[in-house]
Amino acid sequence: MTEIASSNYDYYLDITADICPMTFVKTKLLIERMSSGQTAEIRLGSGEPLENVPHAVVEHGHELISLDPSEPDSEIYILRLKKPRLRRSTSAAMSDWPRR
Fold this sequence. Notes:
Layout: E1 11-14, H1 22-33, E2 39-45, H2 48-59, E3 63-69, E4 76-82, H3 90-95
Parallel strand pairs: 1-2
Antiparallel strand pairs: 2-4, 3-4
Helix pairs in contact: 1-2
């Protein structure tokens, strides 16, 4: 699993040699290591990875920036995602509220 920052993204992952469910497992492990607001570029193959990984990324609350073929007529796709910034929970926000 390659996790080197690409030129415009904080992380890079190539899962073209993997099959489901390992494609999303590796993607999820990468996302767990990312900080809020960081971005990743992931190379994935067509078929099940192309159908499942983007859907699961969005389903888990991450922003899908883009999903494009690496080249025209390519079977390799480039998925770009952003881990959302953490939102403060209501209870945490309320703990800062002035008490009277």
